[in-house]
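Lab notebook: predicted structure, single chain.

Context: the supervisor wants predicted structures on file for every construct in the current expression panel, including those that have not yet been purified. This is the next one on the list. No modifications to the sequence; it matches the entry in the shared construct table.
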Amino acid sequence: MKKIISLTLSILFLILYFLLPYSFLTICSNSMSKTINVGDVIFYKKIDVSYTLQEGDIIVFKNRLKKENIKLVHRIVKVQNYKDEIAGYYTKGDASDNIDQFFVYPDDVVGVYIGKINRIGYPVVLINKLLSNFNGTKELYD
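Prediction complete. Output recorded below exactly as produced.
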């Protein structure tokens, strides 16, 4: 009976995760440390290219330069327009004085930050560190 309840709850969680317009992410990098810290779990609203973003918004996006399927979280510092349409965004982490050396295209943005819970994601951070040390690879979130 416990297995059936557990399986039912797991399936329900997965259905809600994919159907609801919100998601979450554990922060494993210091790049936003003035606002969001390592171990925080952020919540974001899933968006598509029709959503209007502006300077100052914190976005969740895919980085085209990385091979891994890792989502990054940075603040938009400039919206780049081309022929009256948004071409993309320049971003930076709040802990950095420098703008990122890559351009974020609208179709790379998967969400916009809505809030966080402090430090509850530390187990995920520790597992990431252990796995990267075990595999002899650089941490995924550097």
